[in-house]
Structures are given as C-alpha cells and as structure tokens.
Amino acid sequence: MSDSFIRISNVTKRYGAVTAVSDVTLDIKRGEFFALLGPSGCGKTTLLRMLAGFEIPDEGQILIDGVDMAGVAPNKRPVNMVFQSYAVFPHMSVADNVAYGLKIDGVPKAERDTRVAEALELVKLGGYGTRSPDQLSGGQRQRVALARALVKRPKVLLLDEPLSALDAKLREAMRIELAQIQLKVGVTFVMVTHDQDEAMAMADRCALMQGGTMQQCGTPWDMYEYPANRFVADFIGSVNMVEGKLVEDERDHALVDTPAWGTKFWLDHGVSGAKGASVWAAIRPEKITMMPRAADSPPPASAAPDGCNLVAGVVHYSAYLGSETVYEVKVGDQILKVLRPNSNRDDNGWCADGQPVWLSWSPQSPAILLA
Q1: pTM
Q2: What DSSP state is assigned to residue 285?
Q3: 3-state SS, residue 316
Q4: Which of 163, 261, 321, 343 has its CA 20 to 30 A from that of 153?
Q5: Are 255 and 206 in the same domain?
Q6: Which among 93, 356, 337 has a CA at the least distance from the CA of 239?
Q7: pLDDT (0 to 100) of residue 1
Q8: Cβ neighbours of residue 280 under 8 Å, at least 6 residues apart?
C-alpha cells in the first residue's frame, strides 16, 4: 500500500473574504476508506469538491496517484462522485442509469451490459435492472448511484454525505454495506460527513475539520481516546471536561488539580506539559464507575493514589435507552454524564433521581488536553 495515494499539500480555498479551506495538508493511502468529518461550514465539502475538480485551489497542490491535478478537468480525473441527492435519472431504468457513464465514454454495449450486471450484483441489486427509480426505496436508489459510480472503475470514489437522506435504521445497515463494498472492490473511498458515528463506523482514518483547518487526523480510536484538543474531544463522542492545573508531570504519572470537581486527576503517564499550566481534563461517560453513596459511609477505595479520581455527586436525571442508561450527576455546580450498560433486565432504575453516588475512574481513562 502506497503511503500517499492522494496528496493534498498546503491547499487553501477562498471565496472573497471567506477562507473555506486554510493550508490543509493531508495524505490518503491507496485502498483506504477515509472520512472528512466536521460540522457544517468547516470546509470538508469544499475540499472534496477540489478533489473532484469542481473547485480550484487558490494555493497548494493536489496529486492523485502521483499526478498533479492542476488543470485536469473533472471528467478527466480518475475519480467518480456519489452525491448526497443520488442524482438518479427518473426517466431511465436502473440498468440504464448505471450504464449512462459507460455509454457516454463509448464503451461497447456487450461490455456495458457485463459491467452493469457486475455492478448491480455488487450492490445487491441483481435482477433490478429493468425497474424504474420510482419503484425503489431510498436505500435502493442510493445503491444505484453507488453502482453507477463504481461501474466506471475509478481509482477514487468520492461520497458527499452518502447516507444523510436515509432513515436511522437503514442508515445503520448501509454503513456496513458500504464498508463491505469498499473492502471488496479495493477502491480508495473519500467520504464527507458531519455524522461522527458514520465516520467512526466506516472509516479507516478520519480528518476532523473546523473553520477551514484540520484539527486532527487519525484512526477513529486515536481521535476518541487521544483527542488533540478540546474541539476534537467534544466533537467525537460524548465527554465530560473540567479545567485544571497541572501540578505534577513525571514520566510515570501526572496529577491535575480540578477544584470545580473537588478532586485531582491522577494519570499513569506523563503529559509533557509545563507544571502549573492550565489544562483540561476529559473523561468519557462510559469510563466512569458509579456506585450508591450512603450518608454515614466512608469514601470507597480509589483506583488512584491519595483518593484521586473520586468525587461525590447526586443523580440529577436518568434516561433508560435500552442497552444502557444515561445518568446526569450533579457534582458541585457542574453536571457530569455517566453511561452504565444494562447488563440484565433488572437494571432499569438502578439509581433513582436524587440518589447520592460516588463517581470514580481509573488512571488510564482520562485525557489531559493542553490549553
């Protein structure tokens, strides 16, 4: 696998006084499923459109398979695109929709028919060729658009919010199918999405963007467990964050004082910060252990030294979600979110609203974000 099949180097795009993409450098590997992730207006779609050739960078360079794309028209690039709206032709049959690009390129009919049949089988629409788009569900129309893009055998498939028009259950099913199709065909997929669950479920790696700049690039695991900054920690999943001061930072541990929570965070590794510096301690809701707290009982033993990583709180709100229960726990003036899996059918109502509780976490769980 090449280390850099797509090379985006110092790319900037402006629209008048607005900088949509600012000095982005990014490498995408051959055969990778890559996601450009971020909120509306972050620059991810503009970057995708520059890969497709629909927009031209004001600065920087884009190379695909070692070839500079400067001056290369969209229809001459080794890419194809699946749009958010699918753009399926309503007056054509499914087979004619899929064959359209091949027909424009002058591919002989016998070869067209073979490749269309293969593409429809790939997206699990074998036998649907004679149907019209209005006879298909939203998920099936999405597959037609995917087959139409893949039938041309592009080196890169660009997907612009490909699942956003589908309902939640179908969207979840299509995530799995898209990932399986990508593995089967081995084409490099570059997907734009604002949905972090979508990116986490399908992508080998993600680039999270905000304000036209890239905040972090890595695997979903990297970005969830080791966020580069507060924006990444807050955007990827749910998180509890509290401001603190770095009071110890050694090779084998770090200690962060967090007065707002009335505790100290103990980590089993250093964080390479300046002692006394302001930092943010972040802890994911599922990494917090919650246990009932009796008024006359002593604090439980903590997994961290000196009683660190332990706070007293009161359940403020709870919501049963089937596989898990979400708790909001009031700690001082702040609300912490805690997720507890419902491992048996009697877990509902394990902690009622108003219940005093202890919250604790292991030294391996927090992330310390340098301010």
Answers
A1: 0.89
A2: G
A3: strand
A4: 163
A5: no
A6: 337
A7: 42
A8: 230, 233, 241, 242, 243, 244, 368, 369, 371
